[in-house]
Amino acid sequence: MKVTLKVALTCTTALFATAAAAETMTIGITQNNVGVDSYQTTYEQAFIAAAEANPDVEVVVLDAGGDVARQIAQMEDLIQQEVDAIIIWPTNGEAVIPAVRKAHSAGIPVVVTNSNIAEQGFDFVASFSGPDNVTQGARAAEIMCDKFKDMGIESEARVVQISGQPGYTTAIERQKGFDDRLPEVCPDVTLVETQPGDWNREKSQQVMEAFLVKYDDIDGVYAGDDNMGVGALNAAKAAGREGIIFVGATNFAVGYDAMAAGEYWGSIYQSPVDDAEAALKTAIDILNGEELPFLNYFDTPKITQDNMDEFTKPVF
Amino acid sequence: MADMTKQGIGRLLAKQGILIAFAIFMIGFALANQRFIAIDNISGVIRSSAILGVMALGVTFVVIGGNFDLSVGSMMSLSTIVVLDLHDKIGPALAIPAMFALTLALGAFIGFLVGYMKLNSLIVTLGMLSAIHGLTLTWSGGKNMDIADKAGTWFAVFGQGRVLGVPVPILIFAGLAIILGIVLSRTAFGRKVYAVGGNGQAATFSGIPRARIVFLTYVLSSFCVAVAGLLQASRSLGSQNTVGQGMELQVLAAVILGGASLMGGSGTIFKTVIGVLILGFIQNGLLLMGLAFYVQYVVTWGIIILAVWLDVAAKRGRLWSPTA
């Protein structure tokens, strides 16, 4: 109800505003599934806050509730309303392409946020704003390698990897980044095995238990996100195996706490606030006619026990 | 002479087909990697399987009673999240009974709908699968739930403790399996569950209160889910909202693998336990073999089919039957 009202209001204000001052731009966003996790909830709040702070921008904020059909309908609504630009957080990288194409044909630039759509839709997208998962994987490899060098075991260390859900782009990209970068920075470190933990702490704990049985000597664990990393950490603690270096990605509160406790070495800091602000800025820059790279990444820095004071504890 | 031996083996097989399948897999995996049969690994696998196993014990009653329970996975998420959340708010001593009360209330609600209202159990519990997941997300606001003081709580004892060197989850799983095994096979209630699932109408005509028996199977199932949630929460002292997702199918697979009929009326606790262990050891064995994970899905399916086939073949006394 609130959203509908907001939509109606924005439409009228947009019309008048365009007549009065050509500067005001209306940007519509259709999000994936607000409320399903704190990342997405924080993203929405940050997006609205950023838009309110900018007097030149009016936003229409919609949420698909994880439903592809609803997201396509929302895209069509936004096209009908003749917004100046559309930001989409795809519920499904394939299924939304026709809707994105329709917006493109209507002359409305589309910014994809957080997770990209499938490649065959790239022609209809003005820019992608989100995290660079290949770089995240590469940075995790660097964090681990640096730590091994500190410990003086870079010539013999053995690493296992627990990847995200098989088939998911984020999982594939982070694994690729890690797999490619590790031999570049630490050529003598062996990656002995990779198994999926399906983004699931419990599954990851079971995978790690099997690794611990199978390998007497494990020096490092790279997990595709902190939830899985902490699952692996739990397994090592239960088995009484100490001195293993854990590195994750997408720093979660639970990973941050484990770092504070000195049990978990590092991760990659990805803030939903940065994610939301980057998406809005990308859309505004495009409307202002600025040249942007097609893949417009926001920075996701390294976080370790050494520099964690510079970061606030994640809310998710 | 040869005939008699053949019949003797046949009778043995007919009773224990699934057990023989289990033994074959264990030997196979042990040959592939000798660490598979290390005591630490075996105890680790059983400890991990205990959560699934406890849930499967309850669902065995529901299935023998002629119904489905697809809600156990999301119900376990809810119990886990609730007990973790309340742990820091009201302390573990109160959080545990509060979580049990909530879970039992949900089980009673489902039991009421299926037992007394005579609604289709597949529809009711499939609906509850999403409804309860929604409840969990509402409760947690989508956040991961973590106990703040992980080192200083006695709550860890259920999932991580040991008594006489045996992990507590294994003791709880084994204890519950023995008690429920006796309840199912040696008490009037157990016999009524078989009667209701085998032939509901006949049971009603013999004066068995069908609605109440079905109701009780769901309450029992939710009790097991609460125990599983407790083990899960205590094991990791923190959880995602997705923790039990998809487990309803694994539970059902374990129960059916153990030989319980989806039509109701047959199955035993002992065989369900074997079904649970087979699933647990397959996952562990394949990991130890280091097979590429895409292959693991396919191999898991193959092994399950092999187990079911051996069980069926044992019951009919031959490996292949052209007629039925």
Key terms for this structure?
A: 316 residues, alpha/beta, Rossmann fold, elongated, disordered N terminus, B: mainly alpha, 4 strands
Number of domains of chain A: 2
Relative strand content of chain A = 15-25%
Radius of gyration of chain A, in angstroms, nearest whole number: 22 Å
Q: What is the succession of H and E elements of chain A?
A: HEHEHEHEEHEHEHEHEHEHEE
Largest sheet of chain B: 2 strands, antiparallel
Structurally, how many domains make up the residues of chain B?
A: 1
Helical content class of chain A: 40-55%
Strand content of chain B: under 5%
Overall mean pLDDT score of chain A? 90
CATH superfamily of the largest domain in chain A: Response regulator
Instruction: Compute the number of strand runs of chain B.
Output: 4
CATH topology of the largest domain in chain A: Rossmann fold
Please identify, by name, the CATH architecture of the largest domain in chain A. 3-Layer(aba) Sandwich
Structural class of chain A: alpha/beta
Helical percent range of chain B? over 70%
Overall geometric form of chain B: globular
Fold and architecture overview:
The complex is a heterodimer of chains A (316) and B (324). With 316 residues, chain A is of the alpha/beta class. Chain A has helices spanning 2-20, 38-52, 68-80, 97-105, 133-151, 169-185, 201-214, 226-238, 253-260, 272-287; strands at 25-31, 57-63, 85-88, 110-113, 127-130, 158-163, 190-196, 220-223, 245-247, 266-268, 295-297, 302-304. Chain A has 2 domains: 2-130 and 273-298, 3-Layer(aba) Sandwich (Rossmann fold); 133-269, Response regulator (Rossmann fold, 3-Layer(aba) Sandwich), CATH 3.40.50.2300. Chain A is 45% helix and 17% strand. A 6-stranded parallel beta sheet of chain A has the order 2-1-3-4-5-11, with helices on both faces. A 4-stranded parallel beta sheet of chain A has the order 7-6-8-9, sandwiched between helices. In chain A, strands 10-12 form a two-stranded antiparallel ribbon. Residues 1-21 of chain A have low confidence and may be disordered. Chain B is mostly helical and 324 residues long. Chain B has one domain (32-316). Chain B has a two-stranded antiparallel sheet. In chain B, α2 runs parallel beside α7, α3 (72-90) crosses α10 and α4 (92-116) runs antiparallel to α10 (210-236). The longest helix of chain B is centred in the first third of the chain and has 31 residues, at 2-32. The model of chain B has no long low-confidence stretch (mean pLDDT 90).
